[in-house]
Amino acid sequence: MGKSLLMAVITVTLFNSSLVFASSETDAIQQQLDAIKKEYGQAIKALEDRLLKAEKGAQVANDQAQKLALQLEQSNTARTSSSAQNSFNPAISLILDGRFASFDNNPEDYELPGFALGNEAGLREKGLSIGHSELTMSANIDDQFFGQMTLAFDEHDGETETELEEAFIQTLGLGNGFTLKAGRFFSEIGYLNQQHGHAWDFSDAPLIYRGLFGDQLIDDGVQMTWLAPTDTFLQLGAELFGGSRFPAGGTTSGIGAWTAFADIGGDIGIEHSWQLGVSHWRSDNIKDRKSGGHAHGTGEAETPSFSGDSKISALDLVYKWAPKGNPNNQNFKFQFEYFDRDEDGEVLMLNSGPPLETTLYDGDQKGWYAQAVYQFKPQWQVGFRYDRLDSNNRGSDADVLTEAGLDNEGHKPQRYSATLEWLPSEFSRLRLQYNHDESYEKTDHQLFLQYTMSLGSHAAHQF
Fold first, then answer.
1. Tens digit of pLDDT for each residue in 106-150?
2. Phi/psi at 166 (nearest 5 deg)?
3. Whole-angstrom distance, CA of residue 2 vs CA of residue 7
């Protein structure tokens, strides 16, 4: 029993010693933790105080910046409002065009059998001339309207003529894809018609443009277009014209002609793009549309005058290629247009007779051209174009049709053209062009050397 009591005393003593040791170790660890918390707690509080101070400083600086920006905006608005009424700062562009022309045939003998030529149709004079130069001024009128005016200068019969070629306004913010244009402008029939001559790839207009429009269709009126909100380019449009200019002709009050058109296009990868267009122009009740006349001996020139209805339908296709989507070094463009005109009315030969020579007239004229332009290296490109026309005009007096130039004389006009161009920059171009022209029975070999220079601001050209 004495041994048992001794063992119990030893066990209790060891247990109490373990508790005392454990308690001392715990106290030491707790003291270290308290010391760490105190040290880092002071550092964290110091960082928090600095952050709060920085945030307050940033807020003050931001408030000051906003106040200064508001004052600056108000100042600029005041200056703009006061000066807008007295400032006039449009973009001004000057196109300088000059050329040398050589023909085997006499330019005054030019004709297109089956087509009564009007407006500026025909060949230019031989030798040196200033060509077709332009002065354009354009600007945003305000946030709602844009305005543009173009004066054209040309040489004719040794005299310089000035013409108001374009003068229109155009909306900027109708919304929903709509744009309205009003004034004098190029119609959007076909593809080439809406472009200025200096943007063409050849020195002269296609034969079908020469035969139908006298090179280009320009009139006074309004145009509405709608651009669809689709990935594929889709544009629909309509035009209402006064109809006082060729090929409508005559004096009208109200709407003398109208046009409807649609264009669709897109990209094929990054290197190919295309555009397809259809359009239709119509003028009813044309009165006294005059075309080129001719004289018999020393008498006064007899001038064909058409009265009746006229309608023109057109199809155009454009394809472009540029390696890796970059046209600067190399690119290719193919362009095709087809036109068909139907007319019904009467042709009168003014200054004929007495009695005046006249015939009923049922006209059917058509034509197309295809051209390809290839820029084979920077600053150099070549082009080739082929034109072909046909007509089947009928009337009650074949002799009057012949006098008016509406008899095709059994001939289908055609022409081959080739160009070589040097383009030092986007503002300058030198062009050498050759035409093998079979517009009428006597083939003409034509040579042109042309320069076109652009000064000042100039808008980007269409697709």
1. 999 999 999 999 877 889 889 998 889 999 999 999 999 999 999
2. -140, 145
3. 9
Query: How many domains, the chain?
Result: 2
Do 64 and 98 lie in one domain? The reply is: no
Asked whether 160 and 154 are in contact (CB, 8 A), the reply is yes
462 inside domain: no
For residue 270, what are its two tokens? 């990054």
Cα–Cα distances (Å) from 52 to 55, 56, 218, 379, 380, in that order, read 5, 6, 71, 63, 67
Q: Among 87, 115, 131, which residue terminates a domain? A: 87
Dump pLDDT digits (tens) for 226-285.
999 999 999 999 999 999 899 997 656 689 999 999 999 999 999 999 999 999 999 998
Rounded-to-integer distance, Cα 209 and Cα 216, Å: 6
Shared domain check, 312 and 170: yes
- Give the pLDDT band of residue 46 (cuts 50, 70, 90): low
What is the C-alpha separation between 371 and 206, in angstroms, rounded?
10
Contacts of 72 (CB under 8 A, 6+ apart): none
Could you count the other beta carbons within 10 Å of the beta carbon of residue 189?
25
**Is 396 a residue whose pLDDT tops 90?**
yes
Model pTM above 0.90? no
Q: 428-437, long-range: CB within 8 Å, 24+ apart, which pairs?
A: 428/452, 428/453, 428/454, 429/453, 431/203, 433/202, 433/203, 435/204
Residues contacting residue 458 through CB under 8 Å, at least 6 positions apart? 93, 136, 427
Query: What is the predicted pLDDT for the residue at 174?
Result: 92
Most distant pair of Cα atoms in the chain: their distance: 170
Q: Which of 64, 87, 110 is where one domain is finished? A: 87
Segments forming the whole domain that contains residue 51: 1-87
The CA distance from 130 to 132, in Å, is 7
Q: Are 422 and 61 in contact, with CB atoms under 8 Å apart?
A: no
Question: Do 70 and 126 sit in the same domain of this protein?
Answer: no
Nearest to residue 285, comparing CAs of 255, 311, 307? 307
* Token pair belonging to 351: 């200054």
Rg, Å, the chain Cα set: 40
Same domain, 66 and 195: no
